[in-house]
Amino acid sequence: MTSVIEAQVSTELKKTLCAMQEYYSDECAGNAEEQLRLAYALPERIRAQQERILQERSAVQDAQAQIHQLVTEINEIHPRLQEQLVEALTTLPPLLNETRATQADVLSATIEASLLKLSLIRTRAYNALYGYISRSDPDCTMNNALLAAHEKLFAKQREQEEEERALDARIAEYDNLMLLVGGGEGGFAQIVEDMARVKKETEECRRDLCRLGWTGD
């Protein structure tokens, strides 16, 4: 009778251990022996889990202590930083404005000096070009030379205009002659027309050469 009771108690104990093992463990045991082995190892696993929990709790407490320390340091530093910021905002702008004003004065003086140099260079160039005077003849100046050249060019232009009018008159005479000879359709009329065209092109070339400085030598 006693052995039967012991067997029942052992069976119930094993069932209880297996149920606890299934509750605490994620492992799936295949047979009863494997379940029983995991159930016997359950207390050791629970103790190991408790140790890990204690270690993690200690790490969390250390992190909390560090956070509290950082908050305390920030609260202590914040007033000093605010005071330094106010001091910087009070003292730095005048210094920056003074520096910028000095830089602006230097830049303005540099620009003014550059303008004076440019004015001096312009005056020297103007005098060198238009203020030239011959040592042997004081009347031989650059202005007089430019005026003489302008008058000469204007005279050539008038001569060319007169030549052009004379050529137009001769061409008109040739046209009238063409009409008298053959009404503009005969062979002699073609010769006269070609001669007029060649003459006109020759005069145009001569005028172009005169504009380029050719004197007819």
Element pattern in H and E: HHHHH
Strand content: under 5%
Give the integer mean of the pLDDT values.
76
How many individual domains?
A: 1
Largest sheet: none
Uncertain residue ranges:
none
- The shape, in one word, is elongated
Terminus-to-terminus distance: 160 Å
Strand element count: 0
User: Radius of gyration, rounded?
Assistant: 59 Å
Counting helices, strands and paired strands, the structural category is: mainly alpha
Number of helices: 5
Portion of residues within helices: over 70%
SSE blueprint:
Blueprint (H helix, E strand, L loop, with lengths): L1 H23 L7 H9 L1 H89 L11 H41 L4 H25 L6
Helix pairs in contact: 1-2, 4-5
Structural notes for this entry:
- This protein has 217 residues and is mostly helical.
- It has one domain (1-130, 187-212).
- It is 86% helix and 0% strand.
- It has 5 helices and no strands.
- It has helices spanning 2-24, 32-40, 42-130, 142-182, 187-211.
- The chain is elongated and about 165 Å long.
- The relative contact order is 0.03.
What tags apply to this protein structure?
217 residues; mainly alpha; 86% helix
Q: What is the gist of this entry?
A:
This protein is mostly helical and 217 residues long. The protein has helices at residues 2-24, 32-40, 42-130, 142-182, 187-211. It is built from 5 helices and no strands.
